[in-house]
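2.7 Reproducibility. Because tokenized structures are sensitive to small changes in the input, we list the exact sequence used for histidine kinase, including any N-terminal residues retained from the expression construct. No trimming or masking was applied before prediction.
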Amino acid sequence: MHQPEADPVTRAEIRADLTRSGLNLIGQALSIFDADLRLALSNRQYQAMFDLPDALTRPGTSFDDTIRYLVLRGEYGTQDDPEAAVAFRVAQARTFQPHYFERERADGRWVAVEGAPLSQGGWVTVYTDITDIKRQEALLRARSDALSQQVLLNAERLAAANRKLAATNAALSEAQRILTRTEARTRQVTEMVPAHIAHMDAQYRYTFSNRRLPVIFPGAAGDIVGLTLEQALGAATARTLRPYMERALAGDPQVFEITHPTSGRRIRIALTPDRDGQGVYILSTDVSAEVQSREALAHAARRNLAARLTSGMAHDFGNLLTIILGLQGRLAARDLPPEAAEDVQATLAAARRGAALLDRLARITGARDPALEPVDLPALLADLATLSRPSLAEGTRLDLAVALPPGQLLLDPGALQDSLLNLVLNANAAITPPGRITLKARRNGDWLELTVGDTGPGFTPEALSRATEPFFTTKKGQGSGLGLSMVYDQTKMVGGTLRLSNGPRGAQVVLRLPWRPVARRMVLLVEDDDLIRAQVRDQLTGLGHAVIEAASLTEARALTDLPGLGLILSDIQLGDGLGPDLADAVPSGPVPLILMTSLPQGHPLRARAPGPVLTKPFTQGRLAAVLATALAPPKDPA
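Resulting structure tokens (single pass, no recycling of outputs):
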């Protein structure tokens, strides 16, 4: 008997399964609420991102109930009137206005929220976790001493452009005109995602596409349903993809990256076999910005290693060139035949050229000044933990124990983060999972004490005595032996100490750094050169100080009676007098006086300085260190 209803129902069920499977492949969280503010559709990532109970992910769930649950749980921070907060957000939702914004969640993670109204009422929302992007930008900025400013700016601009691209719904208005069926609504959701989502059958023919292929593969057609792989992407790209497709069709999931031959974009492709064995789901994303940032960090690490290696080589070659120059100089002083004298002079010229090159190399690879700046240490350690945990072995956990008084500290954040990351990864390599790494921070007298401990086997006696030597390693054939040496150098550079020991359960490394709390003061800056004064003013304000400027000794004397004046920073030589004369100029009593000059060491005017003298030019880190010493409270004689 003919049954006209059976085939359409079967097709609808297959299509619905296909849609649900496709949505669950999307990395973002998705939700659709209808005109009555009741949940129509969501994916697994929506429940996982907000840790929602099953009852709030079923179709028909009230938007009011979902918002009330999130408000009471603290998703939007502390609320004086929770019900008012719920009513405000429900009222906003009823306006059905398109919106895009980024917010920091209560747990410190960042989420981008993009919503668009539906033509028949209600709206669709895509939530994207952008925490790693935010932290990657911060990490790059912290390592700016090793990367060029232009690379940093380009990386950040590219990351920002990608986020804006995710918020651009070029096909939104076209999709809204056809949202008359559930299938059209689902297509609208997938087309908002900054990735290409597709399904391909066993004959390598596209059966579904969210029309985002041209966004990922520039130059490709937008409507590819019914086309083969070769027709949609071209023969060259298809040849690259075919082996992965074959393995995915055989049931083996694939994740890989390719470079698009025409645009040069780096594209990550995930292939997931469908459960019915009738094809494969495809998720393609543009990861060019991520790769650029990753390569920038790797380049910074390689550059640091190259600097250390070339510095040592420069020292040895410098000794050889000194010998060569001495011998050739002696030969040049003798009465030589013309041809021999010409050869000696050529050798001398080449050796002098080599010495000049080594001098330039020494300036490039020489030790840098510490870049001290005000740092929120608990936040820095939390970011470090977030950065480190994905690299830990399965079953190994990293615990933080931070017991610090409130307030910022003057630290070199880039160097400190590099050092602690090195110690955490070293501990991870030493542990046999499951294990535990503990990072503790506390004040110990005049020191900031940072301890990294693990539950591994501990240091060997040889490692305890040699671990900070360059190129010493216990990772046979794997480690460079520069990790702990770098940590030692960076710690010593800021006046700290490093101690290795074996604790009760494993290895323990203790970093002790000078305790330099940020003491914000009103500073009287006295400098008669306008450009230098502007530069030093920017350094002082960058350290959080308030600045009053004077261009002469007379002008400075007129300002010394200002209430709250906490420090004077003056040039030694001024147009109408000398900076040391300001030592006793404050009517309310002496305040710290720091002098600055470009005069050489040993000059008589430097000897008149009653306190520390900064040699021009100086870095902000050097200025911060001198200010911290001058503003530190006197130690108890006991």
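The two ends are 105 Å apart (CA to CA).
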